[in-house]
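Mods, move this if it's the wrong board.
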Amino acid sequence: IEGVSLQIEDSILGTGGGLSQAVDKLRDEPVLVTNGDIYHTIDVRRLYNGHLASSAKISLAVHDFPRFNSMIVKDSKLHGFAASAEGGNLAFTGLHVIDVELLRQIPLGRKSCIVQKYKELTAQHQDVFDLLRVNDAYWTDMGTVEDYLSLHGQLLLGKVPAWQDLCLADQSPFI
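Not the wrong board. Structure tokens:
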């Protein structure tokens, strides 16, 4: 996609369904995906370049965040997902790089969660994942009113890095 493309969904398709519907607009190269309800300082270039250097079909940025630790990771390999949050040892940040061929496997026009696809792949013991640990980055979810307000309060008080500050830094992952 050159520039920005807006995709209107008659009914919400979820992360997997939305990405599947966009496949024909994408080039045949890995796609960097970020959840819209997170705020972070994760180096997206490092994630993307790491994906290109690996043989993985999917690269996930992960960290230790007990509230969301649902991934079961052993020896740097994803073995599955716990039945509930806090049942695993790492959390998915919502940042991932996905090969377009994998997105073509998701049925068109149907609601689908991309994490459900990841659960299916791990259940089939498919070793298609690369994990990038990002414990050194700032990350927060802002999917609830409380989390949203907390983040903005911390931004106003200068307790978390603001994107403007990140973009001005010499080592910015955003330029």
